[in-house]
Amino acid sequence: AGMNGTAIENFVCVIFNVSFMNCTWHVGRTASEDTQYFLYWRTSKEEDYTGCQNYIKDNCGRHTGCRFQNVTIENKRAYFLVNGSRSGQNIQSSEKTIWLYKIEKLTPPLNVTVNCTEASHVCEMWWQPPRTSHVKRPICFKYQVAIENK
């Protein structure tokens, strides 16, 4: 239902700093300035949708994203629904399913320590894995070290 071209486009979510999630989208091609969008999400098809409490808005005041706090990733899927209205008329809704662990941007490794000995021309490095809410085994991480000689 709803007029063609009014549904959102380019829906993207990113989880960062372990438990914060931003979801953003572009307004539909034929959406007028009075079109308003509403985001709902849930992590199970058995639970009720939860509406966004902290919208990101464009210059026209239209919702173009949402900020979430205290998101628990685990190995859950999330189900997103964006619908809306325009002058009392329904617009096309949009649904998307996302595996939350796939959209997490990891923090850098923690407590990086470097110890170099000039006599043997050897450097040793240590670090702790990045913070994450869903990876329980440090062996799951792969690292890349770039060494520059200055």
UniProtKB/TrEMBL annotation:
Record's keyword terms, sorted: Glycoprotein, Membrane, Receptor, Signal, Transmembrane, Transmembrane helix
Organism superkingdom: Eukaryota
Segments crossing the lipid bilayer: none
Chief location bin: membrane
Subcellular location: Membrane
Membrane association type: Single-pass type I membrane protein
Record-annotated Type I cytokine receptor cytokine-binding domain positions: 11-102
Annotated protein name in UniProt: CSF2R factor
UniProt cross-references to PANTHER family, sorted A to Z: CYTOKINE RECEPTOR, INTERLEUKIN 5 RECEPTOR SUBUNIT ALPHA
Originating species: Podargus strigoides (Tawny frogmouth)
A Pfam family of this chain: IL6Ra-bind
Lineage: Eukaryota, Metazoa, Chordata, Craniata, Vertebrata
